[in-house]
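User: Batch of two.

Assistant: Item 1 of 2:
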Amino acid sequence: MQRFQDPNETAFLIELMAREIGRPEVVLEVGVEKMGTLVIWHAIAHGDYWPAKVIGIDMVDHTAGLWRQFPGMQMIFGDAHDPATVEQARQLTEGKVDFLFIDGDHTYEGVSADFDNYWPMVRPGGMAAFHDFLQPSDFRPAVQRLFFEKVAAGAFRKVWTYAEIGRGGIGIGVKS
């Protein structure tokens, strides 16, 4: 487990999550890699033995099974765009996601597929966060582009963005 997250960005998101949705009962993260944020969501969701589900999706286990040490945490290993993976996530979440964290394939096609596949599982009033919103590289502006397309299309009841110069940034929306 490694921490690559901007602490200010994470604090902003945690405060927003607490204010807008409270303690989430079902968290779904697409693109787990080293598990840094998944552990944060687990701590928030579980608190004092809160019976939450925290589910991560990634192609392979980058953590050598470390996720098994966290009660209530479940992993799906496979392509997040594969219909079988999407169906497994739907079954595990029972289609009632409180918080969706999208941090997987950062191409436009990839982030679009992640949104299209997992946003329907988010409950009304639930929240989605798009990570690496402003990452200074050739492919990550796609995350920002898709986020603003969804904003323009009315996908969110409320929206926020957070970014610091030289950091990844995040776009956040609450479902109507």
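Item 2 of 2:
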Amino acid sequence: MTVFPPESRAAFAANYPEVPHKLRHALQREPLLELDALARLAEALAPSAVEYNFADLPIGITAKPDPTGIPIGETIRRIGETGSWAALKNIEQVPEYEALLHGLLDELRPLIEARTGALQKPQGFIFITSPGGMTPYHFDPEHNILLQIRGSKVMTQFPAGDPAYAPDEIHETYHTGGGRELTWRDELLAGGTQFPLQPGEALFVPVMAPPFRAQRAGAFGLAFDHMAVGLVVCRSGRPGVQRRAAANRAESGPARPLAPAKPRQGTGLAGLCKVARPALTMTRSTA
């Protein structure tokens, strides 16, 4: 099965790695993404690969939300009524989901590697959200593509690499163990761009482009999020590097690949880029 049609692959080639854009995909009827299958996956994953909490949240939060106390399997099977948000992390640990992830990435791999070099550690995450749920305002330290599978949502995305939306200090703190939550102020909303997503649509989110997601009422949301993590993907997550690259483009035309950044001592590439973290965005589900 081909996941991305030719026009979506052409759009990706024209916009990756810096311009947010929508794509089409064909995963809406994938059996591995049905609720029962996802509940079984969640029950099989290690606790460290599962995160879930109440979904009725404000746009801005300063700490992790409270857990619901409902077992993860029941949370997913009854997502239409549990008022929950759940994330299944690093699904590539399971062979069937690893094949799914690599299959869709292989369709984009030549386009990615032509611009930003070889993929280093592709990882997949699945988000399941109750109607009316919100994924609060935060930043993502990696490029990602969010594929909407069920339900509908609106993702509000803000300019990448702009410290007015994601201060450099917060980004640096994240790489030493801090969180990805950002302080929300209502006046920021004017700088955001809304991307409505329906089943069969996907959205490319550049690194350090802060979002929030709102799941629309009427149906639960199910999104498959995969990250194509390569050397330049990680390097471009450093705000100073991203702004210098933008300045260079203004002076000398199209960007060229940047020289490899040296990982911090004792962390390695994964420690520098935090590639094991999911790319969460702020969304509200509709009930």
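The first strand starts at residue 21 and ends at 24.
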